[in-house]
Fold Ion-translocating oxidoreductase complex subunit C.
Amino acid sequence: MKQNLRSKEVTNLSDVVRLDKLPEKAIIPMRQHDGIACAPLVKKGEAVIVGQKLGECEGSDLAYVHSPFCGTVDSIELMPNPSGKRILSVVLTPSECAQSVDFVPEKNAPPSRLIQIIKEAGIVEYYEKPTYLALKPGKRIDTLLMNATFPLITHAYLNSLDKVLEGFRLMLEASGIPRGVIVVRADDKESIKAFKSAKVDGKPLTVAPIIGKRHADYYLEDVEDQIIVVAAGNITYTPTMMNLLSANVMGRKLPLGGEPSDAHVVVCGVKSAKAVYDAICEGKPYLENVVTVKGAVNNPKSVIVRFGTPIKDVIEACGGYKGEPGKIIVNGSMGGITVYTDEAPIVKNTTGIVVQTKEQVLRDVTSACIHCARCVDACPVNLLPTRIASYSDLGKYEECEHLYAMNCIECGSCAMVCPSKRHLVQLIRYSKLQIQNMCTAEARGGD
Ligand code: SF4
Ligand code: SF4
């Protein structure tokens, strides 16, 4: 396991600032999750206020979009997006007015209403699934895991830990899941210290290390607590590593191609727990997130940013570029996506920005595979990266599927060790997309 690859991320970036300066233009995409796009509810020239619903849709996999700003609708058009695509967006000219819709808290609502509030608030998990759907997968679930293994994100919320914990408790109440496990990295001393001094329902939290084969189940059998915290290894579990998170923390093996709910587990994030608190206890829809900014900027820091704010404004809040920017990567340098413009906005699943200067950008020349098998040795989930990438290159996606390409967690370890500098992750990721498209076409009847 390449745990050391990620241990470097525990750096001190706990300097969190709120970006209050209004952007010249806010770009609010009508789709900010992996699901149905919303239809705009506003027209060009219309005035909007904070919290107003801007986009709505029908179906089972939806996340409504609300306005984080007061302002006027400039246009509704295809705009750049951190996903690399151009997405239909409401473009606003924000104004200083602080008017908002009425935020109505409903803390004592029954569970079915709590789920409805989470849905109405448009809350989305860090792996792009709407939270209301993630909490109700239609299977027997006994544990809700909170992935707090992104130290910089977790640190940014330590000042409001009581709200995060209450949001997590409300998620349990809304979903009927009997118990919750908060997972932190074992080397994240700052978060462990904060959780040790936190309380839920007036009782101190149980904070335990996961050692050897003892998994969270081991502690849950021992205590009557509804929520415990476990320190599990030095891995940051990215969105593609949820199965590994469930297996490592709960000790429950997942079937190939399965998902955490197949092991009776649901995963949520720290941000969504805070957003659930805001929605239920303060009546606010999902309007902002913490984004960590690292790399070639003058003052790296964590910034609380309203959705729709262009990346360039966030960079400016971090003192601007340090040197000539060569690459802007959204959501991590290992598995993130390079954006082609800093005009692209911060959206619901944006967790971080890494800037590289022109000199830092690797421009390796790819050569033929020399069959050294280093990528095979490096793969933490025992795949054959070279074989999958070759089939992907040839457009043979069924073969990629047979080699379990969908189990790739996009960690980048194979590409890092490849002496031929092959674009293994990109090819494997592309094959995953094609496999998904094949499955969707099959479900629709082979169109
Ligand atoms: S194939 Fe490469 S990117 Fe995918 S899990 Fe294995 S090492 Fe990581
Ligand atoms: S590490 Fe690179 S060169 Fe070696 S087998 Fe894998 S793809 Fe081929």
In short: Confidence is low (pLDDT under 50) at residues 1-11.
